[in-house]
Design goal:
Length: 372
């Protein structure tokens, strides 16, 4: 069995708005073999940039597009192919968008491998430890505390026992920030509250906010600092009354390594569409080794949701699953199967590979670019 084609497709909904929500477009990577199998993957990144990395022709030995590196290879050799892609993209890859493109390929390779062996990916990863994981509804803040409270009530009524609010307008002022968190708690009642600041504070301001927010008992305080501020995260975690979560923007093991080595976080959030299963397995082992907790990050389509629940189910201390509830057709309708929490719980699929199939009519409806 050899890789015969690597197809890249960009999908985009027509009503893109200025908000921090990556379920408005998607880049799919479809790896096809000479005997008719196909694996599908996705990257959470700028779709056109990922497509360029896959399509790029040979420049020199460490600056080469991914398709050229993959065609003719055995798709079951995921570890060797990850290392080959990493080595041959060193001049434009390493810890950023090059890794996200590799991650989409890696997801597709694992999907293909599961189909080849008739096994779900969680079994290929070593076996699930959980049949289901409690899902939390992941959504953006409202315009103020009142609207945030209304949003909270909506998702509690829908069956969620945990809800995360994030990003704008948090960071506007202390009064705005506290109003948002107070409104979230009011709307949630006794349900679990999670707060995502969206990288808006310096370390001392973040510590003041952590003390102010503690009254409302959030489960964690996510990404209060800029993603590259590792010293700040170490300083903050040692002083914060709230658990500190981060990691969603990190691309692969090299990005996560300094955070893990310095025990900078309480909760490490891993996005399979930015790390791939191959590097996520390494990150899982390292985080479990230091006794911290793992959670997924996912705000895209059912492909990454399915990939995330396969991976998270293999994590020893999995306790919450990020379930994007953004009202976008890409989030809900890209696959024939609905991959969403039911009564507040995410079930782990046992079908081969990712366990989901693309709705080809949907793909064609929202397709804006394709390469082969």
């Amino acid at each position: 069995m050899k890789i015969a084609q690597v197809v890249c497709q960009i999908l985009r909904i027509p009503n893109i708005t200025a908000k921090t929500a990556s379920s408005q477009d998607s880049v799919l990577v479809r790896v096809r073999t000479d005997d008719g199998l196909e694996g599908v993957g996705e990257a959470d990144s700028s779709p056109e940039v990922v497509k360029a990395i896959i399509d790029a022709p040979f420049s020199h030995n460490i600056a080469c597009g991914l398709r050229q590196l993959l065609v003719g290879e055995n798709p079951l050799d995921h570890e060797r192919l990850w290392q080959k892609m990493y080595r041959r993209t060193m001049y434009f890859g390493r810890t950023a968008v090059g890794i996200t493109a590799m991650s989409a390929v890696d997801m597709a390779l694992w999907d293909l491998k599961g189909k080849a062996f008739g096994q779900p990916i969680h079994r290929l990863l070593g076996g699930k430890r959980h049949d289901r994981v409690r899902g939390y509804a992941s959504i953006l803040f409202g315009r103020d505390g009142k609207e945030t409270a209304d949003i909270a009530r909506r998702w509690v009524k829908a069956g969620y026992t945990a809800v995360k609010f994030g990003w704008e307008p948090m960071g506007t002022s202390e009064a705005v920030d506290i109003d948002l968190v107070r409104g979230a708690r009011e709307g949630l009642g006794d349900a679990t509250l999670l707060i995502d600041a969206g990288c808006v504070y310096d370390a001392r301001t973040a510590l003041r906010r952590a003390h102010a927010f503690a009254e409302y008992k959030p489960e964690w305080f996510e990404e209060p600092l800029h993603e590259a501020d590792i010293d700040g995260y170490v300083w903050l975690r040692d002083r914060s009354p709230l658990p500190i979560a981060a990691g969603e923007g990190e691309c692969g093991r090299e990005s996560f390594r300094p955070l893990i080595d310095r025990k900078a976080l309480d909760v490490y959030q891993v996005d399979i569409s930015r790390c791939g299963f191959t590097d996520a397995s390494y990150i899982r082992a390292r985080v479990e080794e230091i006794g911290a907790r793992l959670c997924n990050h996912c705000y895209t389509s059912p492909l990454t949701v399915a990939a995330s629940i396969h991976w998270l189910s293999t994590c020893r201390d999995a306790f919450l699953f990020e379930d994007c509830v953004e009202d976008s057709p890409l989030r809900h309708d890209l696959t024939h199967e609905k991959v969403q929490s039911v009564n507040g719980w995410m079930e782990v699929p046992d079908r081969p590979g990712l366990g989901v199939t693309l709705d080809e009519a949907f793909v064609q409806k929202y397709l804006v670019a394709e390469s082969k």
